Amino acid sequence: MSATGFTGIVVIVLFVGLMVFFSFINKDRKTYNIRPIPAYKKIIEEINVSVEDGSQLHISLGRGGITGPESAAGLAGLGILKQVIEKSSVCDHPPVASTGNPVISILAQDTIKGSSKAISVTDNIKNPSGELIGVTPFSYAAGALSTIRNDNVSANIHTGYFGNEITWITTAGERQSSPTIAGTSQLTAQAVIYASASDPLIGEELFAGGAYLGAGKMHQASISAQDVVRWIIIFIILASVFLNIFGIDVFIENILAGSM
Amino acid sequence: MKINLKSPVSTAVAIGVGIIVLAGYFIPSFINIRFILLRAGLVLAAVALLVGIINLITVHVKKLGADSENSGYSLILVIALLATLIIGIIDMVQTYLVGKPNFQMTSWIFTNIQLPIETSLLAVTAVSLTYAAASILRKRMDLFSIIFFLVVLLVLLGSFSIPPATLPFLHVIREWILRVPALGGARGLLLGIALGTITTGIRVLMGTDRPYGE
After folding, report:
1. pLDDT tens digits for range A143-175
2. Could you give the ipTM of this predicted complex?
3. β pairing state of A180-183 and A199-201
4. Is B214 in CB contact (< 8 Å) with chain A?
5. How far separated are the first and last CA of chain A, in Å rounded?
6. Residues 24-43 of B with CB under 8 A from A
7. Chain A contact set for B129 (CB, 8 A)
């Protein structure tokens, strides 16, 4: 096994251990202190608004698949979709989901069916769809516009893998004067989202949806695990900087090379 | 008593395949199994594309019947999809009959219809991005939005090559912004995304996240 492979296994074992540890020690806690993220607060507000005025939420899951590095964003989007469906079960019009990837489309339909069944919303008319609206970036963005312009859609939640084409989608939401909550794992698209969405999800905030929307203890534990590993990384970076400033890194390299 | 076997079986398959594929990245003896599973996944993704296209046609055919202002777009989509499909089938038959690749008509569609449309949309994206950057202060007048706006302005000014915007200090500021704070911020965001990606994957492997129904 290579050094990279060994490091990878250590990181995964560390994460699993931390997640199990935090879920175990917090299993009896009723509340969990996590920093407020305005975008998730807005999602809950918009669910309540849609229940009150009989409007609909639009959730777009991006165009990432499940076999590439963009898959995590798609899975995070599906998790948010599940929570929104469960929380908006009493809505007159259930949320509408759209995707730009066929695999995510099937998973979205399965998530919708599963969540609807779990909350006993078995009426086919009430079951929302998981439409595939385009398979290239711009066809997806263009296809999403017609859903966003639907007068009955009160808010748009874009969580998944998007590129710069998201500016079309977010700008269309703004023109409709409907709140736009958006998050992606692509770096340049995050800058676009920050500028164009009313409630952006920046960096790892996209992956924290479950913890903020009440998906369970393991989601909250994973936030704590991320924080611990983040502090470890910060410590390693700072230690490397100090070692470099004082020339200790060269000293250690020489010791390891046996040239002292 | 009705026993639902779908949920535990699908969960077991997802977790098992996920663990084997993950192990393939770290343990050399698992590499071959990983490739077999990934190839199977790609085939399934291609089948999913077919299912997705059928779903797309179904949705838009339903919209044609409905009294919707967008039914015209749905009609164009259905006609374009069917026309491209028929042309693709004709090209495939010709390839089979001639015995060598012959996708002239399909290539013509991509070169003369899809490519110009997507290029035009890309050009419009530049306008849309500029509009978004300009309207940020209207949306959120806070410290970070002001910093964002000023940085965009400085980087744009530093990129100009037309006098009188070619002041040397603007180039220096632009280079410093791109090399130091922008790069540092990008690395920080990437680290956060990587941590989020790992925990999302682990939750799927542990079966606490099941994006494949209940």
Report:
1. 888 888 887 888 999 999 999 889 989 988 888
2. 0.88
3. parallel
4. yes
5. 30
6. 25-28, 38, 41-42
7. 164, 167, 192, 195
